[in-house]
Specification:
It contains five helices and eleven strands; from the N terminus they run βββββββααββαββαα. By secondary structure, the protein is an alpha/beta fold.
């Protein structure tokens, strides 16, 4: 059970200190009804956790241990109007999308292992869009495979809305882990990484393998280091 203490903050209305003595982990986080940010980390051993903030704040906040932050990448996120209409999304759903992106991008399984940190800003360098298959097919030259897309070494990332909400059976991942894969995979393209094949039977599926189309003889995996 986490020990929670209130702290005064000039940055955000609510500031919480989460302490995990049994796991040698502590973190300072801030939250508002529509945003949650991890603003300071004190890590003794590498763990991650989900903390329930209860009513009056975002449903939960993700706390991750990290190595030293070396390379900071800013991004901004949006959900296309046709996706909002199709899935009947509300403002809270849009904020939840922002929250999940923050968690997946900074996950211990993600590119933070290579020294990257990711921060959402109003005019971030990378634009991450939740888009329909039709939009992605037009932008990326696909033909109805319900794939996500990112410009290799570029600044544009398209996450397929149908996959975001329903996953991909061929990946052998549950929805939460599939979302982790798709965010890490597409950010991998932004970082200049190309597709790879399954290295062999029983190997963990590389993050740059196209899990959506099947992982062959590999086993499911969301860790960018495999």
């Amino acid at each position: 059970m986490a020990n929670v203490a209130m702290a005064v903050s000039e940055i955000m209305p609510i500031s919480l200190i989460f302490s995990f003595p049994e796991k040698k982990y502590a973190a300072i986080a801030t939250a508002t009804p529509s945003r949650a940010y991890l603003i300071r980390r004190v890590t003794i051993s590498p763990i991650s956790g989900i903390i329930d903030l209860g009513a009056g704040a975002l449903e939960s906040i993700c706390l991750y241990s990290t190595n030293e932050e070396i390379m900071r990448i800013t991004y901004h996120a949006s959900i296309d109007p046709d996706v909002i209409k199709t899935y009947k999304l509300r403002n809270t759903d849009e904020r939840q999308f922002d929250f999940y992106l923050m968690c997946y991008l900074n996950s211990p399984d993600g590119w933070s292992q290579d020294g990257y940190s990711f921060e959402q800003t109003e005019h971030g360098h990378v634009h991450i869009r939740l888009s329909s298959t039709a939009t992605i097919d037009k932008a990326c030259g696909f033909s109805g495979q319900k794939l996500s897309c990112a410009i290799l070494g570029g600044t544009k990332m398209y996450l397929n809305a149908e996959r975001w909400f329903h996953g991909a059976k061929a990946s052998k991942l549950d929805l939460e882990n599939y979302r982790q894969y798709m965010v890490s995979h597409e950010m991998g393209h932004i970082l200049g990484k190309e597709h790879v094949k399954c290295p062999g039977k029983g190997s963990k599926a590389p993050i740059m393998l196209q899990h959506t189309l099947g992982i062959g003889e590999c086993i499911p995996n969301t860790d960018v280091k495999g």
